[in-house]
Design brief:
The protein is mainly alpha-helical. The chain has 12 helices and 2 strands. A hairpin with a 3-residue loop joins strand 1 and strand 2. The model has no long low-confidence stretch (mean pLDDT about 90).
Length: about 325
């Protein structure tokens, strides 16, 4: 007998939980017997990543319990927190108040409302067309031209990354895929698990075998060996998880490769922005491991690509 969507989801979360338990035990043993309880950059970073995974899995699992509404609210608040982090670290002036208020309290909720009612034709252009035109108008009416282009572009880019891209994650629930009814939540799990595991695999492979830097001026910790090993490992994981998707094994692996590549470049772009602002992390929401954007930097670039590839080829 085929498992129900609820059973598949439960089994998947149980499997992820067991992996995290093993990872936590391994991290604790490394801390005790290798680091001898003392601070250790690599081991402490690894344990921080494991803790971040526990938080993400728990929050996503709780949202899934409340169905589509729970998932929509989760990513709505994630977008709000991410946009707040982004704007906090960018240069703005008093004249940007109306544009910022409109971004937070009109465009953001409207984008998620349109995703909720599945108005595809509007939520795909609301921000890159209408918001991008409206925000400079609001800013210019304030009469302050100091670094006007710089200020306007930052607000627009913040909306694009934190709201537009991220809203494509819950939008996966709207896709009508023949033979995949009531299973769309597993697409979100596939996206998040594959992209986030790529980050972890890149870190591990980089620490074990990393020699050549990919972009030393932007992210000194990223290496060619870490990138190749991490993306390949996460792509294989995507192929293994084909059974929770509407894809076959090779399709799942190719989709995983696409979103892993986008996730890597997303992390690189966000690192470049942090370098420009002179900060290490976007925030301190997750103890010892940065803010919301530090956890979602790869997901935001992968989400719209994954959504549109799936929508074009499978609906």
């Amino acid at each position: 007998m085929n498992a129900t969507p609820q059973q598949q989801t439960l089994n998947l979360f149980i499997g992820i939980g067991l992996v995290l338990v093993l990872a936590s035990v391994a991290g604790a043993l490394l801390k005790r017997y290798v680091a001898h309880g003392a601070p250790h950059g690599v081991i402490d970073n690894l344990n921080a990543r494991i803790k971040a995974w526990w938080v993400m899995v728990a929050v996503i699992g709780l949202a899934f319990l409340f169905g589509r509404a729970g998932v929509m609210l989760l990513f709505f608040f994630a977008s709000f927190a991410a946009l707040r982090e982004f704007i906090t670290l960018t240069y703005t002036r008093r004249a940007d108040h109306d544009a910022l208020a409109t971004s937070f309290y009109l465009i953001l909720p409207l984008q998620y409302f349109l995703v909720w009612i599945d108005w595809y034709g509007l939520y795909t252009i609301l921000i890159p067309v209408y918001a991008f035109l409206l925000l400079p108008i609001l800013a210019v009416l304030a009469g302050d031209t100091t670094r006007f282009l710089d200020r306007t572009a930052k607000v627009q880019w913040g909306l694009m990354i934190c709201v537009y891209c991220l809203s494509h994650v819950p939008a996966l629930l709207n896709l009508k895929i023949p033979g995949y009814e009531n299973r769309n939540a597993l697409l979100i799990v596939f996206l998040v698990v594959v992209v986030q595991s790529s980050d972890v695999f890149q870190y591990v492979w980089g620490k074990l075998f990393g020699r050549r830097k990919v972009a030393p001026a932007i992210s000194p910790s990223k290496t060619v060996e870490g990138l190749a090993g991490g993306v390949l490992s996460a792509t294989m994981l995507g192929g293994i998880l084909w059974w929770i998707t509407p894809f076959n094994v090779w399709q799942a692996a190719l989709m995983a490769l696409a979103i892993n590549a986008m996730g890597f470049f997303g992390g690189l772009v966000m690192s470049a922005i942090k370098r420009d602002r002179g900060v290490k992390d976007w925030g301190d929401m997750i103890e010892g491991h940065g803010g919301m954007l530090d956890r979602l930097d790869s997901v935001v670039f992968a989400a719209p690509v994954f959504f549109h590839l799936t929508r074009y080829w499978w609906t």
